[in-house]
Amino acid sequence: MKVIVIGAGVGGTSAALALQKLGHEVVVYDRMRENRPVGAALSLWSNGVKVLNWLGLGPQVAALGGRMDDMAYYDGHTGDELCRFSLSPVTERTGQRPYPVARADLQALMMDAVGPANIHLGRQLVAVADDGETVTATFADGSTDTADLLIGADGARSLVRDYVTELTGIRPERRYSGYVNYNGLVAADERIGPLDQWTTYVGDGKRCAVMPVAGDRFYFFVDVPGPSGVVEDRMAALEHAFGQWGAPGVRALLDGIDPDESLNRVEIWDIDPFDTWVRGRVAILGDAAHNTAPDIGQGACSALEDSFALGIVFATSTLGIEDSLKRYERIRTERAGDLVLRARKRAHETHAFDVAATQAWYDGLRREDGTGVIRGIVGNIEGSPVELGASVLG
Fold first, then answer.
1. pLDDT tens for residues 143-200?
2. Which keywords describe this protein according to UniProt (predicted)?
3. pTM to 2 decimals?
4. Fewer CB in 10 Å around end: N or C, the chain?
């Protein structure tokens, strides 16, 4: 069986690897001309890491991941510790340590595993056609390719999604989440936080957070509520948002950022859950199917779950491509949609869209011993297809 995958990000490359494991011919196309992913890094929680283990990349991913033993919250104005606790219960209950990883490093690893000869960059999809026997992809340069099925992992503005949902009368639209995320990589610095800790400073519905990644670096991500469509100087915007905070760690982070080296500005959008992911021999996965805000750290993990489910279905079902794709859709739509809504709810709580709710969260952090946070993290992992219904231990 020949498969076309549109998109060489985490979702597309993991789908390609899952289908290659089964002996299928896979060709990946992406409009990008080089490995320059949006966003500096990502959180790989245990469910996402387990999929990468299943794909045969476990040791390499572990080498890319930062050692994140603890988690702590601090008051952004004063620097006072609100709570600090171990993340070891996540590992113990799921059977796998989570890793923050630099996105470009992970994507390069996965693209290399797929095989450079199987990936074609600089190819923008413009049309999809399914004649019931084969699927043809047409690209902006006039070239075409034909396969037995096509997987659209072409991101939040997916053309493949438009094709899949065209006959439903429903056109999923992106929805602004109400805040801007600034992110990048900086040298690890104990003035910001311990080198083995997920450190977060909070206040006024805003946050500054760092996670350790390989190479003695911190991945930083900073949230600022505000309107979309604003053109601004990124460092000036950060100084305006956080320059008056008194926490020394926040000042050390701002001073450590080199905007010419690593500073992204990303408006956060998501898409209301929908349940049409398949049309004939064409299916979508990743952000194309469930564009999710990063507030629970499950966006990339959910894409990896898609690829796991896709691989399992094609390994075990024998009634044809269209039947297998519908089974994939049935496995994934409810859980992926639930994670979208959980992330949306979390964003509402933490970004002062309801000021009283955010203040109650801050007050609760002062009493937090880790139990509640761990419950939430593990709760996002429970129900993952990779857990096979039983591998999260109480």
1. 999 999 999 999 999 999 999 999 998 889 899 999 999 999 999 999 999 999 999 9
2. FAD, Flavoprotein, Monooxygenase, NAD, Oxidoreductase, Purine metabolism
3. 0.96
4. C
Spell out the domain ranges in the chain: 2-174+270-387
CATH topology of domain 2-174+270-387: FAD/NAD(P)-binding domain (3.50.50)
Burial 323-354 (b: 16+ CB within 10 A, else e): ebbbbbbebbbebbbebbebbbebbbbbbbee
Pairing mode, if any, of strands 264-271 and 174-187? antiparallel
pLDDT tier for residue 37 given thresholds of 50, 70 and 90: low
Query: Which residues partner with 200 through β-bridges?
Result: 73, 209
21 Cβ partners below 8 Å, 6+ apart? 55, 56, 311
Question: Tens digits of per-residue pLDDT, 102-133?
Answer: 999 999 999 999 999 999 999 999 999 999 99
- Contacts with 92 (C-beta within 8 Å, 6 or more apart), sequence order: 393
